[in-house]
């Protein structure tokens, strides 16, 4: 790639157009955008991105319009990633691209949907949502005459594939190598990963409190919440609860972002990577929280897992979602003519199962429920007790 319209102001260790490993199908450089701005724009115009609007983040029941969906979650991740990228002079457009794309491969119904599909695919290579996000941008989006998928840069694809099993990494050529050799990706990918953690930890506190499934008294055991909550309460003793919670969450996010910028800056100053290749040659990520704040963030994540994600009410909805995904899988697998992409009659079981998984993974929550009702005749409601 021969031009770098965005290199002004970028640190040497950031992703630059000029040092990109390029696209799988070579294309002329964009005229008025950087390579990574083009990647971002392709994500925003994709079908998979629009479907995030109707996919569950945590709340697998349709209880209200204020809860995060995968789309609003992804926008919050992008906003956090962009702030930190600018502060560290990283490539803002690349960090934004990875953030917007990181959940494109998610099934309907959040993690329950992913686990159900993985079980259904047990004999056919399994299902991993990270790998599916890559599959969406590499293969499944049908937008361009000259190549499959969105033909994103290596750096965007590297960031989208956040985790990967060793077995799958071995089948992935250049992109899988870092999982086998245990090296980190570029800094923008490292950043998008932690921006995801900051976003979900904080919006799940907000959504969790709004739903009434978790309580302030429980959260007071969590340092990251207790300290700002106590400060805000002291400073504004008459604040209505919604504003009190919002100001607390705002301060939590601010604290995590500030720590991430400062600790990462110190790591970068110590390691002094000359360019993105030297970042990739490190043995560990350089974008990181300080030890103490990292531990606080982990403690909050553990709290949310046990108190919110495994709350009996969330679990009940999850069990129904599990039934829907497995029911859909069985219906399409036993009768592939039901699939819109009829494929060819010679498909072996492996290829057929993957076609079914791709179709189900692409569904929104509401479409999956409709299809389930159409194919099985029984309707499932994830909200309330139906
Ligand atoms: Mg996410």
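^ structure tokens above, recovered residues below v
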């Amino acid at each position: 790639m021969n031009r770098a319209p965005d290199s002004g102001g970028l640190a040497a260790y950031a992703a630059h157009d000029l040092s990109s490993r390029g696209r799988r199908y070579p294309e002329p450089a964009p005229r008025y955008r950087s390579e990574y701005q083009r990647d971002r724009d392709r994500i925003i115009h994709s079908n998979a991105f629009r479907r995030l609007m109707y996919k569950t983040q945590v709340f697998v029941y349709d209880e209200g319009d204020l809860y995060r969906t995968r789309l609003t979650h992804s926008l919050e991740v992008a906003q956090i990633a962009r702030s930190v990228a600018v502060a560290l002079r990283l490539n803002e457009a690349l960090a934004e691209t990875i953030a917007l794309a990181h959940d494109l491969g998610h099934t309907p119904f959040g993690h329950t949907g992913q686990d159900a599909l993985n079980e259904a695919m047990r004999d056919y290579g399994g299902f991993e949502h990270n790998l599916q996000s890559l599959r969406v941008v590499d293969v499944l989006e049908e937008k361009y005459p000259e190549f499959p998928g969105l033909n994103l840069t290596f750096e965007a694809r590297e960031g989208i594939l956040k985790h990967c099993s060793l077995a799958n990494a071995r089948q992935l050529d250049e992109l899988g190598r870092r999982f086998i050799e245990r090296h980190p990706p570029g800094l923008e990918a490292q950043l998008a990963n932690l921006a995801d953690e900051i976003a979900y930890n904080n919006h799940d506190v907000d959504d969790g409190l709004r739903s009434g499934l978790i309580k302030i008294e429980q959260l007071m055991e969590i340092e990251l919440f207790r300290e700002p909550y106590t400060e805000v309460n002291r400073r504004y003793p008459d604040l209505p609860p919604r504003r009190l919670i919002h100001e607390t969450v705002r301060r939590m996010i601010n604290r995590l972002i500030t720590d991430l910028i400062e600790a990462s800056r110190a790591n970068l100053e110590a390691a002094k990577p000359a360019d993105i290749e030297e970042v990739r040659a490190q043995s560990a990520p350089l974008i990181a929280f300080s030890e103490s704040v990292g531990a606080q963030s982990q403690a909050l994540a553990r709290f949310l897992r046990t108190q919110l994600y495994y709350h009996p009410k969330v679990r009940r909805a999850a069990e129904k979602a599990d039934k829907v995904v497995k029911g859909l899988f069985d219906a399409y697998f036993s009768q592939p003519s039901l699939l819109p992409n009829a494929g060819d009659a010679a498909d072996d079981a492996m290829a057929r199962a993957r076609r079914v998984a791709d179709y189900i993974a692409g569904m929104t929550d509401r479409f999956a429920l409709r299809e389930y009702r159409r194919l099985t005749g029984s309707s499932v409601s994830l909200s309330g007790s139906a």
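The first helix runs from residue 35 to 44.
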